[in-house]
TrEMBL record:
This is DNA topoisomerase 4 subunit A. Belongs to the type II topoisomerase GyrA/ParC subunit family. ParC type 1 subfamily. Topoisomerase IV is essential for chromosome segregation. It relaxes supercoiled DNA. Performs the decatenation events required during the replication of a circular DNA molecule. One of its GO terms (biological process) is DNA topological change. It comes from Kiloniella litopenaei. The record marks R126 as: Transition state stabilizer.
Length: 750
């Protein structure tokens, strides 16, 4: 057993509040995630893992003209030298840089299975190979000319670049995605030719307006193509604030078949949409009868995307069919824009388009200055040596004599000819062959060339307009190499105006089938297939009975009017089936348990309702005005003091009269036009009562034709019709008189 003296002394233990310790550590984690993992740098558009991947591949000499190396070798170097994280995360980053459907301009040339647009994963890193692309070379260009700062790697054994020189506007060209702690970034890819045009214009006009910028850059350019359907105002708002989104649709066309038939072919899908999941979603909608106009979907894709949609019949409008698909599937998606990046001072912030472009230009200007200074230093060193050589040639015999006779020829040469240590060392290291006359001529020529180059570089550093001219020429060369005149640089995403609203009938997404909707006294509702006139044998829960029986279609909307004066909207296709007793309406809707259901109606667009309360007030309302957008319903009829119940009646298209009967058994008939149309309120007085209140109300068409006149049902179920109503006709708000013979003692029309 070891003695106490052999024990390692414990570390210092400090008392600290848990909340303080937790906040300090979480802040450190958050900063690490923001700075070193999730947000790209505005200058090169890369996160640290991508930057380290490209730099490691350059060290492995995986240039575009060289051979491939195993991805596992690359991942191993990155993980061992620069990025101490899991190998799978590094390989995932490498794979994305090589996927043509993920990056508009891939930075890695992959050989092997690197995944596909269906969402299949890449093969294991031991099977795939990689090398840099020419565009990655643009990002790394001049990195060995002291153009960027270097920092020690995590283990201190070597250095890595803090940023890449980036002669390519990678942030906008390839975009970026990332989620940090408390912030995120989402930048879609753009066309590099358009970016170059905007950059060249900004060099001439630094404070260019956003209206002009979006003339150059009208929107993103996705690697998978598609059609951007966003209005100019929305695009301008997004780019001027750095936040927004772009609506992108699949590109489609129709192909004519025999016998007048046709099929729709989708040739491009929105960015980051997996084709296999998209097709599965469409097939699921067909199977669930949510897409009635579509008969089948087939994937006939090879290298190009070809998804075939087979309509139900040739009479189906392809525009309506596609609009319904855009609403229900990812054939239309939104690409978000959140240009939250690290600026040149490593501060995360949301930049607008002009700031992002200016940051790239400023970076290229800095790189030019640093490269020029580096070259000047090299030239100065070389000129110093060449000047020493020229002195040696002019005094060749004396130089040789000093070298042969002196014990310390270096010091002797420096003293005799006023040479620097570098010059003297260079002379001593000269080969005898270099003493030829031709070599002297070559050195004089090199000296003249370097002197001219030095003067040119000094002029560049002295004149800012000259530097911006050079930056502009570099951007022009980039546009020539990768602009829209090249195959790689052609715009893939079509820019279109915002689509006009196309009304998609409900029949396009829901199969129209007859339903019989039953609702019990206690509010349990269900839908039976088919129209059933007689529902007397329908079964209900013990202690419950039937109340409402409505004939409808699966495409209908239902209006549920409750005793709180609110309307609730419900799709008939959303109701539980006929098996069992259904479900309580209070669960399907946000209907308070203490409220009763007054009526359930089938919605008729544009038609009118008559709403009345037992205190004798009422008004007309358009059915369009009672549609509720939420489950909590829409308040329409204000609950008046003294009103114990409400009545909701659907006005017939040709009705022109209103019949009102009170609890005092007085009947009044007046013209419908006397009843105002309102959107909300208590309404106007319908009938005056000394005692009691309103019992029932209805509308009808006055006339002598069949189906016209005032009708009611007696207790035996017999229907009565009265065409002569002059005796009960009066002004609204009158008292009325006793009803005709045969009118039921219940004082109800129905």
């Amino acid at each position: 057993m070891s003695s106490s003296s052999d024990r390692v002394p414990s570390q210092e233990i400090r008392d600290i509040r848990f909340v303080d310790a937790l906040s300090d550590r979480y802040l450190s984690y958050a900063l690490s995630t923001i700075m070193s993992r999730s947000l790209p740098d505005v200058r090169d558009g890369l996160k640290p893992v991508h930057r380290r991947l490209l730099y490691a591949m350059r060290q492995l000499k995986l240039d575009p003209g060289s051979g491939f190396k195993k991805s596992a070798r690359v991942v191993g170097d990155v993980m061992g030298k620069f990025h101490p994280h899991g190998d799978q995360s590094i390989y995932d980053a490498l794979v994305r840089l090589a996927q043509e459907f993920s990056l508009r301009f891939p930075l890695i040339d992959g050989q092997g299975n690197f995944g596909n647009i269906d969402g299949d994963n890449a093969a294991a890193m031991r099977y795939t190979e990689a090398r840099l692309t020419a565009i990655a070379g643009e990002l790394l260009r001049d990195i060995d000319q002291d153009t960027v700062d270097m920092r020690p790697t995590y283990d201190g054994e070597s250095d890595e670049p803090c940023i890449l020189p980036s002669a390519f506007p990678n942030l906008l060209a390839n975009g970026a995605q990332g989620i940090a702690v408390g912030m995120a970034t989402s930048i879609p890819p753009h066309n590099v030719g358009e970016i170059c045009d905007a950059l060249l214009y900004m060099i001439k006009t630094p404070n260019v307006g956003f209206d002009k910028l979006i003339d150059f850059i009208p929107g993103p350019d996705f690697p998978t193509g598609g059609v951007m359907v966003e209005g100019r105002d929305a695009v301008l708002q997004a780019y001027s604030t750095g936040r927004g989104s772009f609506r992108v649709r699949a590109k489609w066309e129709t192909e004519d078949l025999k016998a007048g038939q046709y099929q729709i072919v989708i040739t491009e899908i929105p960015f980051q949409v997996q084709k296999s999941k998209l097709i599965e979603k469409i097939a699921e909608l067909i199977n669930n009868k949510k897409l009635f106009l579509l008969n089948d979907v087939r994937d006939e894709s090879a290298e190009d995307i070809r998804v075939v949609l087979e309509p139900k019949s040739r009479n189906v409008d392809p525009v309506v069919l596609m609009e319904s698909l855009f609403k229900l599937t990812e054939l239309e998606s939104r690409a978000s824009l959140n240009m939250n990046v690290l600026d040149a001072d490593q501060v995360p912030r949301v930049m607008n388009l002009r700031e992002v472009l200016q940051a790239f230009l400023d970076h290229r200007h800095v790189i030019l200055v640093r490269a020029s200074n580096f070259r000047l230093g090299k030239i100065a060193t070389r000129l110093e040596i060449l000047e020493g050589y020229l002195i040696a040639y002019l005094n060749l015999d004396e130089v040789i004599k000093i070298i042969r006779e002196e014990d310390k020829p270096k010091q002797a040469l420096m003293k005799r000819f006023s040479l620097s240590e570098v010059q003297a060392e260079a002379i001593l290291n000269m080969r005898l062959r270099a003493l030829r006359k031709l070599e002297e001529i070559a050195i004089k020529g090199e000296h003249a060339d370097l002197t001219a180059e030095k003067a040119d570089l000094e002029d560049i550093l002295a004149r800012e307009e000259r530097r911006w001219e050079i930056v502009g020429n570099q951007i022009k060369d980039l546009r020539k190499a990768y602009g829209q005149k090249t195959e790689l640089g052609k715009r893939r995403t079509e820019v279109a105006d915002a689509p006009t609203d196309v009304i998609v009938p409900l029949e396009a997404v829901i199969e129209k089938e007859p339903l019989t909707i039953l609702c019990s006294e206690k509010g349990w509702i269900r839908a039976l297939k088919g129209h059933q006139e007689d529902t007397s044998d329908a079964k209900y829960k013990e202690g419950d009975t039937g109340r409402f029986s409505i004939l409808a279609q699966t495409t209908d909307k239902l209006l549920v009017f409750a005793s709180n004066g609110r309307f609730y909207t419900l799709g008939a296709d959303k109701l539980p089936g006929g098996r069992g007793f259904g479900e309580p309406l209070s669960l399907i809707l946000d209907l308070p348990n203490d409220q009763e259901i007054v009526d359930i109606l089938v919605y008729r667009p544009g038609q009118k309702l008559l709403l009345a309360s037992t205190d004798g007030r009422g008004f007309q309302i358009n059915e369009n005005d009672v549609i509720a957008q939420t489950r909590t319903g829409k308040q329409v009829l204000n609950v008046a003091e003294g009103a114990s119940a409400f009545i909701c009646y659907q006005i017939g298209e040709h009705d022109d009269m209103v019949a009102v009967i009170g609890e005092n058994r007085k009947l009044l008939v007046f013209k419908l036009e006397e009843l105002p149309e309102m959107a909300r309120g208590r309404g106007v007085i319908l009938q005056k009562y000394r005692d009691g209140g309103l019992s029932d109300i209805k509308t009808f068409k006055n006339g002598m034709e069949k189906g016209e006149g005032l009708t009611w049902c007696d207790t035996s179920g017999r229907t009565w019709t009265r065409n002569e109503i002059i005796d009960w006709h009066g002004r609204r708000a009158s008292a009325g008189r006793l009803p005709p013979t045969g009118f039921p003692r219940t004082n109800k029309f129905r």
